[in-house]
User: Fold Xanthine phosphoribosyltransferase from Cohnella fermenti.
Amino acid sequence: MEALKNRIKQDGVVLGSQVLKVDSFLNHRVDPALMSAIGDTFADLFAEDRITRVLTIESSGIAPAVFAALRLEVDLIFARKRKSLTLRDDLYTEKAYSFTKQEENEITVSKHFLGADDRILIIDDFLANGQAALALARIVEQAGAQVAGIGIVIEKSFQNGRQVLQDAGYRVESLARVASLDGNEIRFVEVEAEVKAEVE
Ligand code: G4P
Assistant:
């Protein structure tokens, strides 16, 4: 998505070789016009997939996910994160370990909001090691529902999240794929390389 890549180039701040800070339009201040365009793009990519719900995780997934849900004319559910939780029968619960933050979150979704006949589009802001998206997918599967696909705003392609999710059998669509972060330079995966990878 060109508008997103341009915005990342313009406003993204590289921290070391691993972290891309995008606080000025996605993770702290939010640009609604860009989120709306992101929602349109996800809705186009999954237009034929009979999506019944969008699922994300608080907090930064919510902004792009709400626009995708709006365009797909379905509800959005966001999983909640808790450090510890007393057992509750009416919640689906999964653990997600964050390598970036070196902490484990327990994530929960109410059993009232997911059903066996749902087809779910999972959306998240970043894909690093894939653990958050994988935990969301496991919650969908606990409910007996189907994961129609996973939509990511920014994928760090130098980490293994895409591989993890594809190996688990999920379709992954990322709107910007960052190949490397080096000093202040942000390189994206070449479109030709993306096409070639799909053909192979
Ligand atoms: P994973 O799910 O792909 O395995 O990623 P990981 O656990 O490593 O990421 C944990 C948190 O760090 C997530 O936010 C994720 O969005 C964020 N993150 C990972 N890499 C980057 C990066 O390069 N830049 C930025 N800005 N964020 C990154 P979170 O803890 O869920 O926080 P939030 O959604 O409440 O903001």
